[in-house]
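Homework help board

Subject: predicted structure for assignment chain

Our instructor gave us this sequence and asked us to write out the predicted structure in token form, then describe one feature. I got the tokens but I'm not sure how to describe them. Can anyone check?
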Amino acid sequence: MAPPTGPGRFTRFVRRASSEGKLVVQPRMGFGTVEQMRAGLDAVRDVDAATVGTITVDSYTRVNDHASALLALEKGADLNGFPLVAHGAAVTREVLAGIAGDDFPVQVRHGSALPRELFEGLVAAGADATEGGPVSYCLPYSRVPLAQAVDAWAECCEMLAGISEPVHLESFGGCMLGQLCPPSLLISLSILEGLFFREHGLRDISVSYAQQTNQQQDIEAIHALRALAKEWLGDTDWHAVLYTYMGVYPRSRKGAYGLLEASARLAARSGTERLIVKTAVEASRIPSITENVDALERAARAAEREAVAEPAGIPDSGIYEEAQAIITHTLTLGSDVGKALVRAFALGHLDIPFCLHQDNANRCRARIDDRGRLTWADPAGVPIPRARDLARNRQRLTARGLLDMLSYNERRYDHPSRTSHPR
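My token output:
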């Protein structure tokens, strides 16, 4: 079969929306039954905004326990997502029939370190896109050895690269653990996973970044991400995707809306093409279809209002230089990107703060400074400029201090009077 020669319909849709000045908004939606999943896709398609659909799989499918997913379906039990493999490709294709197309592409989101069966299913069903990566879906979500995940993802990328209609692949590297991972490290991992995808034949990809704790810092980070993507992935069809904050979320409706709308403004001011939203009930339960639609419409309207503002000024605190140093050094550690990633983590030169996976050194630390910026408390072995100077500033982190950092955005948006940091 001839390999693809241009972007698939997912990327074509995103490009068309971007050329019209529209931010593409996308939910993180997944339901167990065929009827619920189809109703959710129908509702997202009908939102008054540029939307793409999402099928998020359930927890059983994420870890390849398809027998348990099938048993849950047979018992009519609730699932926290769509069990694509248990339903089978034919059923999933029926869910997508008459709705997925040039004006409404659909992405399958998962979280699997070993996604071979899932990828086979989504390709057979005719899905337009998926996401993840060998690092970003191994270290935070599984106990699978990193080297095994790298081999599995190489095989999956090559499978996607061999089909005639391109399937878009998005790196989740910009969202390691959701919070407390310094921006330059998030950017580095997303670019490195993009290079991994390209090395295994893919040319239709996106790089990612997750909203953090300071909008000016996030603008600088996304600017750095885009500059590095042009340098390292310029021969691919790429765009940038932003995730609304993925850490501990505000509990009040007002706070949740405030954080969501801040992410939409950030996307608009940074030139980001696509935004994956969160709902007002994210802190307490799985959102309904109506709540997902509400979040999409709010985000789209906030982005439209921000689009008329003056272009954002770009701060410069050295995020680009740090990310460039991490990427360049990592690539010296192996004969290909996969080997380099495994070696870098084994040496502690790539190191995710507070990540307990057995292949992560867990020696480096981050902190939120007095301006609300997410910075290095101690980079440990991560090769960034001024690493030795930063290591001297390491302070003892208590359990209370860690909890305070984890709940920083929750407090800032639920109880703005309790923090002097700007929103």
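Reply (TA_rk): Your tokens look well-formed. For the description, you could write something like this. The first helix runs from residue 9 to 19. That's the kind of observation they're looking for.
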